[in-house]
Each structure stands twice: as C-alpha cells, then as structure tokens.
Amino acid sequence: MNAFYITTPIYYVNDKPHIGHAYTTIACDIISRYNKLLGNDVYFLTGTDEHGQKVEKAANAAALKPQEFVDKMSKNFQDLVSFLNCEISDFIRTTDDRHIKASQSLWKKLLDNNQIYLSNYEGWYSVRDEAFYAENELTKKNDKFIAPSGAEVEWIKEESYFFKLSEWRDKLIDFYEKNPNAIKPQSRFNEVLSFIKGDLKDLSISRTTFKWGVPVPNNDKHVMYVWIDALCNYITSIGYPDTNNENFKKYWPGLHVVGKDILRFHSVYWPAFLMAADLEPPTRVFAHGWWTNEGEKISKSLGNIIDPYEVVSNYGLDQIRFFLFREVPFGNDGDFSKGSIAQRINADLSNNFGNLVQRICSFINKNCNSTVSNIVNYNDEDNKLIAFSINKLDKYKQYMNEQSIDKSLKEVFELLTETNVYVDKQAPWILKKTSLERMNAVLFVSLEIIRRSSILLFPVMPGSCEKVFSILNVDKKDITLNNYQTTLSEPYRINESFPVFPRIDIDD
Q1: For the chain, which has fewer Cβ within 10 Å, the N-terminal or C-terminal residue?
Q2: Interval 349-376: pLDDT, tens
Q3: 277 CB contacts (<8 Å, ≥6 apart)?
Q4: Smallest Cα–Cα separation from 452: which of 371, 378, 387, 496?
C-alpha cells in the first residue's frame, strides 16, 4: 500500500466561502478518492488561514475580537467540506496550538540554519494579497499602484526579519530541472522557472504594524509574515516538528493543489523554506485556473459571486461536481454558465450514463425477473467492448495520475457512448424473441460495463454512483479499481431500477 498526501490551500477567513473554494476542495476530494480506489493510504488535508492584517481589519469591522471572528468564519469552511461530500483526514486552523508550535519550530530551524536575519523593509505591499511586489510588477491607475491581482498596494517601511531566498535561486533551478513534473500544468512550470531565474530577492517574513499573527520566537514586537505561518500548515497536520512521527515519515512530501494566484508562494517560497529547514520540497504543486460567471470576472463589486449552496440546491451536488471537472480542462480558466451546466448534465449524465443504466436495468427487471442468466459464449462484438473498457481504464489511470481529471472523464464517456451504440446494435429487445442466450450475453456485458464505468466515475460522483451500485447489487467493498476486471457472478440478480439523473429543463 502506497501513502498519498494531498492538500488544498488553507482558505482565508475574511469572507464566506464561494465556488472557488468549493472547486479546489472537490478537486482534491476526487484525486483523494481515486487514490483510495487504487488501494493507497490517503491523507487529505484542508483548513483555514486565520492570521494577518486583513483578518484583523475584518474582525474590527465586525466589532468582534479576532479569535471570535475566526472561530465563526472557520466554521463556514468546515461546514462546506461536509456539504460537498468531501472525505478529509484533518481540518487545520492556523490558530490551533499545534500549528503555532510548528510554525515557531520552523522559524527556529531556519534561524539555527542561518537562513534568517533582521533588517529594515521598504517597498510595495498589498494588504489584500498579503504579498510584497516589485515596482515593475505594478500598474498605475487613478494615482494608485495596482498589483497583478488587481489589489491596491501601499508603500511600507518597517523593521523586518528576512529569509535568505536569494541564496536558494540555483538550488531551486536545479531541483525543478531535475523534477520537471513538480509543477503542473506545464505552462505554470515555465512561469515559475522564469521567475526563479530572474532577480530572486530575500523575502520579508515578519511584520510589526499589526499583532494578529504567530509571534516571532524571542521577539514579540514581530509577528510572522502570513506565508511562513500559513504554508507551515501542510507539515503541522502530519506531526511537525517531530519528523520521526509515523505520519510525517509516511506522508511527506505531498501534492498541493492551489489556485494559480498563489502558485509563487507554493512553488518558490515554500520549497525554499523546506530545503532551508532540511526538509524535502513538495512532490508536486498543481495550479488550477479561475472561473468566470456567464463570461464576467467574479467579484464582490459586481455582485456575481457564486454561492456553492445555491448552485447545488438548483442542480444537485454530484451534477455540479461533475460539471466543474468535465466542462473545463483542469488547470485552465472556465466559465460558469447556467446553460452550460444544463447542457452538460443532460447530454452526459441523463442521455448517456443515466439512460444506459435505466434502459438495461429496467429491461432486466421487466423481462428477465431482474436476473441475467449464465452465459455460454461471448462473440467478437462483446469481446471488443470488454477490451475497449480495459483500454479506457489504462488511459483513465494515466490521466488521473497527472491530475488531468477532465481527460479521465472523457475516457469514461467514450466507453459509455460506445456501450450505448453496442446496445442499439445488439438490440436485446429483439433478441428476446430470437435467442435468449444471446440476449443474456448482451445484457450481462452491458451490466458489466455499467459497473466498470461507475467505478471510474465514483471519485467524481460518489453519491450518484452509490445509487447505481445499489441497483446493480454491488457491495461497497467491491468498489475498487482492483475489482475492475473481475466480472459479475452469474446468474446475476439486480435490484429495482430508478432514474439516477433526471433531465434539467432549459428555459430558452
């Protein structure tokens, strides 16, 4: 059994969760569930980032103490995880005692390794991004300087501790040139390597202008810069600073799934911190794109933020989980439109997958006393479809191992489309009058492909696939990729069928 560690970024608690948070969490849940189907020992972490100036300001605006504010806001993110049917191993909060201890231990380790020094910082800082920017990264708008993210920046000057990031330039380049799959997609890898090969300056890692943060050891005038505090969460959860802890030894290093806006922090600063603390960098950082809403950038000011609770209540949880990863290549930007959701659900889930399940299973219920009898021989058409399903499994696994969730789903739907064509061509409703043996063979092969397809779709749509398995009379313990090619027992009895994916009416 292989160990597999996957994390979402920890979500900032200055506002309530939106579709972007749901998207990343579901992505990690899909990858996590896929690895469980392989039989891997999976650890899946998510959580909340609760320190920093932005949180302090939001708490003040809400007339709450910072701890009261983050307690309330963090619960919104915890509730969303279960609402999305995501199976996590741990939910970390940066205000947890264990995390404060781990962050301070990481700081001390960097200090002991001569990687931190005290100086003065002067430069452009964005409160919203909790990030510093070089002047050549900024644009001017209405006498204000704007970061690439669209956030305003301000000029700050204060005493600060610095991390010797510049010393890690060559080691980072060497690491990535030897590990070209450590950042995905490829375009993001090129972007990061280009940034590292530029002028990599030492990084300011503490602040004195606010108090809501992890105190710097032995200097309570300073709190840790949010990224050294926040990034440490990935090792806190698995037992750091005890690197001999069973979980740490088993799971580290892991896979980080993040939005493209925080790629630099995870693929430049974080691996440098880790190597400077004598730890391995992450196995991979996968940076996904952003969503627009009906073609428009999603923003608070436009009032078009997508509420995950609302869209799920309108379309169904598994339908939204499916749409998010079938519609857009994972890693690219995507557009969230009601028309696209309805068309995708109707075409793939109702007309293709759901229709196949309903037509085969209801036929068996009505015409075969819910039982498919023993099969004597398969013909060439049967063997061809079964071989096609094995070919699709290989491609599905290849793409899932690369986090190309959309490509994996495409393989499954090519199999389902081929199976629907097979059923139309073999026509068991005609074979019922001419050859019961041949009819049973067609029904048995069709049931087998439905079972195999449902296993492949289970990580994306666990609730709906469990409904299909209940019709097929498949035990939950048999839902693994190890059982993919193990055919159904015979004679095989199924349960009463029902529509799993109702069509969505599209209002023209």
Answers
A1: C
A2: 999 999 999 999 999 999 999 999 877 6
A3: 106, 109, 110, 113, 115
A4: 387
